[in-house]
């Protein structure tokens, strides 16, 4: 047993050593690049690199006998000796690929314009700092907005804490999910409360003072597939704050004490980058009252400490959590979640809107598939279905249409390929797709809602 423990410790130390060496290697590369830029006269670019990479040029300099030129020459000589040819470091692109690459790499914010009648390229020219940028929209889709973030100052974290800060920083959302409130069908109460908790305080900060301070913590609970995570994506899109997308696997660590340190760093980093939103999916998996393990109790205690800090903090930090089993949450954490909102199965109107969105609107641009359905009758037929279930029904319907098209293509017939989805095809897909939540399970949520909801 002692030998196994010793072997595990040695393996862990070896991994830590390799990880540390990798970080040192990356830092050395950055110092080499900064030195090269400054030597070549790119002073502003070098200054930007120092700021973004948190380089301490006052205490660290590149040695006299090393630079990028020397490294490249040595590599070329080695490559020639081994392969009898010079290495190719860069290559030219043809015009079409070059234009596409430039459009993809462009980070300029672009206002979104949709044109359903045009399937050709949608070109928009922007003049930024006297540089004209023309992005190409090859597939006639809206280009994503840049997701603006404050710079992450990893230099603030010293020694081992920097490792935890790097882990948490990887969970900060850098791509706009592009989910708006209008994209979510139904769920008017959760959308309204999330709007007043995060979005409105950003617009009207003077109104949210004293007793009217914004909600600090909120729980979304309900059956799977009802849109809890989709609401979180809408928050990330609409709120324009630093968004931490945390999963249980991020916070659960192998070694003793690491989970508590990760939680501490997460909340401190959120305070550094405020206004910020911390989204924890499936909170009950890491803060359950049924878990009696010592490590789980320590993790829960650390969360409680920082949740208390949220309620007293003057910084704008919002905690958004989801749970499929709210009755399993630790009572102490449950009490600190100020708003507890039931995300119910979609009602008749929401189901109708979903069928219109998934079938009528999404298939509008399809080349071979058309749609002619009675959305009212379909909404009545899908009572008890979640939003995810309805999406599966619509996907199964579309795939049935595709199978008919494949048969024509495989036979190489001269028939004109055209398929219209009707209510009959959708009802056939409904019969093959059963709801993922039973009525008994949904009643359990409603009973819990009547006792503990706060909306």
Provide structural commentary.
It is found in: Cytoplasm, Cytoskeleton, Spindle pole. One of its GO terms (molecular function) is ATP binding. It comes from Aphis gossypii (Cotton aphid). The longest helix is centred in the first third of the chain and has 38 residues, at 2-39. It is built from 16 helices and nine strands. The radius of gyration is 27 Å and the shape is globular. It has four domains: 2-83, no CATH class; 95-133, no CATH class; 154-345 and 445-452, Rossmann fold (3-Layer(aba) Sandwich); 348-436, Helicase, Ruva Protein, domain 3 (Orthogonal Bundle). The strands form three sheets. A five-stranded parallel beta sheet has the order 4-5-6-3-7, with helices on both faces. Strands 1-2 form a two-stranded antiparallel ribbon. A hairpin with a 2-residue loop joins β1 (126-128) and β2. It starts with a helix and ends with a helix. Helices cover 50% and strands 9% of the residues. Mean pLDDT is 77; it is low at 1-5 and 107-146. With 455 residues, it is α/β, with parallel strands linked by helices. The chain has helices at 2-39, 43-53, 68-83, 95-105, 160-169, 188-203, 228-239, 248-251, 258-272, 294-312, 331-336, 348-361, 375-381, 387-411, 423-432, 439-452; strands at residues 126-128, 131-133, 217-221, 242-246, 276-280, 317-323, 339-342, 369-372, 419-422.
Shape: globular
Number of strands: 9
Indicate the CATH class of the largest domain. Alpha Beta
User: What is the mean predicted local confidence, pLDDT?
Assistant: 77
With strands numbered from the N-terminus, the spatial order across the biggest sheet is 4-5-6-3-7
Number of domains: 4
Query: How much of the sequence is in beta strands?
Result: 5-15%
Low-confidence stretches: 1-5, 107-146
């Amino acid at each position: 047993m002692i030998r196994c423990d010793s072997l595990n410790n040695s393996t862990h130390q070896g991994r830590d050593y390799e990880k540390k060496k990798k970080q040192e290697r990356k830092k050395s590369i950055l110092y080499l690049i900064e030195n090269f830029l400054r030597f070549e006269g790119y002073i502003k670019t070098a200054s930007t690199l120092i700021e973004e990479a948190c380089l301490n040029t006052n205490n660290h300099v590149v040695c006299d006998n090393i630079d990028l030129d020397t490294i490249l020459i040595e590599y070329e000589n080695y490559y020639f000796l081994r392969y009898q040819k010079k290495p190719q470091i860069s290559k030219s692109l043809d015009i079409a690929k070059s234009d596409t690459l430039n459009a993809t790499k462009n980070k300029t914010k672009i206002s979104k314009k949709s044109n359903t009648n045009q399937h050709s390229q949608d070109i928009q020219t922007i003049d930024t700092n006297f540089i004209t940028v023309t992005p190409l929209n090859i597939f006639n889709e809206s280009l994503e907005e840049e997701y603006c973030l404050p710079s992450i100052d990893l230099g603030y974290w010293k020694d081992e804490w920097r490792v935890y800060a790097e882990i948490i920083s990887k969970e900060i959302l850098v791509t706009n999910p592009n989910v708006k409130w209008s994209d979510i069908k139904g769920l008017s109460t959760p959308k309204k409360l999330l709007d007043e908790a995060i979005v409105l305080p950003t617009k009207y900060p003077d109104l949210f003072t004293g007793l009217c301070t914004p909600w600090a913590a909120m729980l979304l609970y309900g059956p799977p597939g009802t849109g809890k995570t989709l609401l979180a994506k809408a928050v990330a899109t609409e709120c324009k704050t630093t968004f931490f997308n945390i999963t249980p696997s991020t916070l659960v660590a192998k070694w003793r004490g690491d989970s508590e340190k990760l939680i501490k760093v997460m909340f401190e980093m959120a305070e550094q980058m405020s206004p910020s939103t911390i989204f924890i999916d499936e909170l009950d998996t890491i803060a359950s009252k049924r878990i009696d393990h010592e490590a789980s109790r320590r993790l829960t205690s650390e969360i409680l400490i920082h949740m208390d800090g949220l309620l007293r903090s003057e910084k704008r930090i919002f905690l958004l959590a989801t749970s499929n089993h709210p009755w399993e949450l630790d009572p102490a954490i449950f009490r600190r979640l100020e708003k507890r909102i039931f995300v119910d199965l979609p009602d008749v109107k929401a189901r109708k809107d979903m069928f219109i969105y998934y079938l009528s609107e999404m298939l509008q641009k399809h080349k071979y598939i058309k749609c002619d359905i009675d959305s009212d009758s379909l909404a009545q037929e899908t009572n008890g279905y979640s939003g995810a279930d309805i999406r599966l029904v619509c996907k199964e319907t579309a795939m049935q249409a595709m199978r008919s098209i494949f048969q024509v293509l495989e036979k190489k017939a001269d028939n004109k390929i055209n398929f219209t989805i009707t209510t009959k095809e959708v009802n056939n897909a409904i019969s093959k797709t059963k709801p993922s939540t039973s009525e008994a399970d949904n009643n359990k949520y409603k009973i819990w809602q009547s006792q503990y909801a706060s909306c």
